[in-house]
Write the C-alpha cells for this entry.
Amino acid sequence: MQIKNIPKERMELLLSAIADLRPDMPVRIIAEDIVLYQLGLVQYVPCTIEICASDEDIEELVEEVQDMEIDALNFTDESLKKPEIAKLQKQLEDRYAKYAIIDAYLGV
C-alpha cells in the first residue's frame, strides 16, 4: 500500500505509530520532495511511503486502533464522576490520540 502526498510531519507520526504497534511491519519512505516546499509551491514537504504488508495485516492494525477509540469512548457520564474511572478514560483517550493517525491514513 502506498500513501502519497503526506506531509512530512504527519508521515513521521504515522511511521512512529506503526512502529510502536507493529515493529515488524516494513514501511519505506519512497520520496520526499523538499524542492517543491523550498520553491514555495506547497506549504509542506510532500512524501510518499509504502507499507509492505498484506491487506489483512493492515486491516488488523486499523481495527486495533478503532478498538482503542471504542474503549476510550465507552464510558457513561455517571461512571466518569468517579476519579479513578475518569483517569482511566483519559489514559485511553491519550492512547487512542497517539494512534488515531493510523486510522486516518489507512482506514477505509
Summary: The longest strand covers residues 2-7.
